[in-house]
Design brief:
alpha+beta; PH-domain like; 4-stranded antiparallel β-sheet; 11 helices; disordered C terminus; histone binding; nucleosome binding; RTT106/SPT16-like_middle_dom
């Protein structure tokens, strides 16, 4: 039986000869994949050249993210060069910085100052892109709450965190690929995703010591299974930032809040400390204090309405990376280029004689337990301050309490209102696509 060509090669042929599926089927009989790939690239180059001629005089000015994402290469020989032939291309649905279906192209980086990824429209115009050397992180994540398996690729530019506009105006790039079903894989009718895209990206990122990263159960996995695909592990935590809902991912290199604008990526090296607030029976809030590299004041980011079922896993992640201790922030910042390596557990004080959490008796007590203990202490103090009406002893404080309790609202009503404020939160609107509001 003749050996079949790889799914990567098949995908390139399907893109190049999209109008002639009969040719794609006949070309699969050839065994020389290098020749087939070169042929596919050549045909795609011809398509681009023809559309470029038709688009003369229509070229629009690229917005700041395109120029800025190049991060100062100052050359037309990189991803912005319209004559540069792509080594990989596919029709892709983008959700950032534009919600649009475009042709994604990877331009080979012959040296460390050229090449990159770009999005091209049907007229051959480059909509946006980024150079390989301008990439800080490339993250591949399963898209939550979708019946059909799909994955989002998130490209984070250098210097971007999402809390404030980056100096050069660069923005993340997000696109979606669909994972073929077992039947589609067996038939070979669709490219093997996300594997094809990951392989193509890693080949170009390797020269910069970078690679695609994934969600990892060793870092964090939700105790709640994937709602739309039973039995699958979920790596996300639904949360709100203000009025915007999204998903938190706790990764080996930082915390990501996606997939709506503004997308946030908080590297471990930029986190000063993490704490918990509004700890209730069903939900809690996560507060992340972020350091600024430009000398400005630290900024606190609050994520609300996190499910209590994920508290233990998040707390374990926080402690593993020592994010609960603000005194270690400078050490994390100094290890900016090695943040993915887990830190070894300390057995005693550090080099400066600082006492670790376990020595003062508080190390084994979680933030949730501390909050519950504090609430219980407050209730005990209230019970001590007031005696029952049947005790026969009535002080002026008791009279004030009774007067307040008789009024409409009282302590009991206030408590009920306070509880409802957090427990009756709105759910997430189910729908496809991503919000484009800034």
């Amino acid at each position: 039986m003749a050996k079949r060509i790889s799914s990567a090669c098949l995908g390139q042929l399907q893109v190049a000869f999209a109008e002639r599926p009969d040719l794609v089927k006949r070309l699969q009989a050839f065994q020389d994949e290098s020749l087939l790939l070169e042929l596919a690239s050549f045909v795609q180059g011809l398509k681009g050249a023809s559309t470029n001629l038709a688009a003369v005089g229509k070229k629009r000015k690229l917005d700041g993210s395109t120029t800025a994402a190049d991060n100062g290469t100052g050359t037309s020989e990189g991803w912005m060069d319209r004559s540069a032939r792509p080594i990989y291309s596919a029709e892709i649905s983008f959700s950032m910085p534009q919600r649009k279906k475009l042709r994604m192209e990877f331009i080979r980086g012959g040296d460390k100052s050229s090449g990159g990824v770009r999005a091209v429209d049907s007229a051959g115009e480059t909509e946006f892109g980024i150079s390989w050397k301008g990439v800080d992180q490339v993250i591949c994540l399963p898209v939550p709450e979708k019946t059909k398996r799909q994955h989002n690729f998130v490209v984070i530019p250098r210097g971007y965190e999402g809390l404030s506009p980056s100096a050069d105006g660069s923005e993340p790039i997000v696109w979606t690929v669909f994972e073929p079903s077992a039947k589609e894989k067996a038939a070979g009718t669709l490219p093997d995703e996300p594997g094809n895209t990951v392989q193509a990206l890693n080949e170009q990122l390797a020269q910069f010591g970078n690679k695609v990263i994934f969600a990892d159960a060793k870092e964090f996995a939700s105790t709640l299974p994937e709602s739309h695909r039973k039995g699958e592990t979920a790596y996300h935590v639904p949360a709100h930032r203000g009025s915007k809902d999204g998903y938190l991912y706790f990764l080996g290199r930082g915390i990501l809040f996606a997939f709506k604008k503004p997308l946030l990526f908080l590297p471990l090296s930029s986190i000063a400390s993490i704490s918990y607030t509004s700890v209730l029976q069903r939900t809690f809030n996560l507060n992340v204090m972020v350091q600024s590299d430009d000398g400005k004041e630290d900024q606190e980011v609050e994520f609300s309405m996190l499910d209590q079922a994920n508290f233990a896993g998040i707390d374990e992640y926080v402690k593993r990376h020592e994010l609960q201790d603000a005194s270690l922030a400078e050490q994390r910042k100094a290890k900016r280029f090695n943040v993915n390596e887990p830190k070894s557990a300390r057995d005693g004080g550090d080099a400066n004689g600082a006492v670790t959490a376990g020595e003062n008796g508080d190390g084994d007590e979680t933030e949730l337990q501390k909050a519950e203990k504090l609430l219980q202490d407050e209730e005990d103090e209230m019970e001590e301050d007031y005696v029952d009406e049947g005790s026969g002893v009535e002080s002026s404080d008791e009279e004030e309490e009774n007067e307040y309790g008789e009024e409409e609202g009282g302590y009991e009503d206030d408590a009920e209102e306070y509880g409802e404020e957090y427990e009756d939160g709105e759910g997430y609107d189910e729908g496809e696509g991503y919000d484009e509001e800034g």
